[in-house]
Write a structure and sequence with these properties.
Thiol Ester Dehydrase, Chain A, eleven-stranded mixed β-sheet
């Protein structure tokens, strides 16, 4: 039986709302879950809109664009009745995406997605998704995403944490997360998760107001790094440490002395704490 076509993201997000009523006592099968999908072709007109949004002057499909496809596969697998967790509220904590081959236009993409449950050293429960995209048996892109299962927040110790700073070798840029830009990213990515669009709904998940999409920040970072190096990224890893609120400001920094690999980060202007850390290679 051939793999089914990967559904569009808006349909998946709407269906995910029903997962709020899943029983929290059930568990993911020990062997995990796996499914296979197919994408007939990538809409190159949409890729062009995505590049224009980020002012990306490259010629190929950006590495971060493939996350949009991987996210669709992840949510499609989350909708499997055997996936026990409510989809809204899952906390994206890490994402790694890498080119393994060159994408060829007009050839269908095979998409294999799997998920396993893990427990972190601090006792937190997470699920890890692996997505592999291939053409004609050739692996093109691999994406690994980790999501933490929500739990009751711990009491934060009194006192302000020490401000965090970038190394002296980092180039720095001042960023603003305007509401209009964040909404435009929701449109271009088709990710209409309400925590990114509604402060009222974001507060039900413990955020003071709507939060920016994590991969919006990563997409901006990718473009800045590629402009500096003059080379397309091959791999990008991001760790989401703190949410970035819509209508806030931050500083982006990345290793300026490296030409093929380095680190990057985003520091919140409000408390001088790192919201995102990561690494890149060209």
């Amino acid at each position: 039986m051939p793999p089914q076509l990967l559904p569009p993201l808006p349909d998946l997000v709407i269906k995910s709302i029903a997962s709020l009523w899943r029983k929290p006592t059930s568990a993911l099968p020990a062997s995990g879950l796996v499914n296979h999908f197919q994408i007939e072709s990538i809409d190159m007109a949409h890729v062009a809109r995505y590049r224009r949004f980020f002012d990306d002057r490259g010629q190929q499909v950006p590495l971060t664009y493939f996350y949009l496809l991987a996210q669709r596969a992840q949510i499609a697998l989350m909708l499997d009745a055997r996936f026990p967790h409510a989809i809204p509220g899952l906390i994206h904590t890490c994402n790694k995406i890498r080119f393994h081959g060159v994408y060829q236009e007009g050839i269908p993409l095979g998409v294999e997605v799997s998920v396993l449950s893990i427990r972190r050293a601090d006792g937190a429960k997470s699920v890890v998704f692996s997505v592999d995209m291939s053409q004609g048996g050739r692996r093109i892109v691999g994406c690994v995403s980790e999501y933490r299962i929500p739990r009751r927040p711990r009491h934060n110790p009194a006192g302000q944490p020490r401000p965090e700073t970038f190394p002296e070798t980092f180039l720095q840029e001042d960023w603003a997360f305007e509401k209009s830009r964040c909404r435009r990213y929701a449109m271009i990515s088709s990710d209409f998760n309400p925590i990114h669009l509604s402060s009222l709904l974001a507060r039900t998940f413990g955020f003071p107001r709507a939060i920016a999409h994590g991969m919006y920040s990563v997409g901006r970072a990718a473009v800045s790094i590629e402009r500096h190096t003059g080379r397309p990224l091959i791999e990008l890893t991001a760790y989401f440490r703190r949410p970035i609120l819509v209508a806030s400001k931050a500083s982006f920094g990345f290793e300026s002395t490296a030409t093929s690999e380095g680190d990057f980060g985003i520091i919140l202007a409000s408390d001088q704490q790192l919201a995102i850390t990561g690494s890149w290679s060209c």
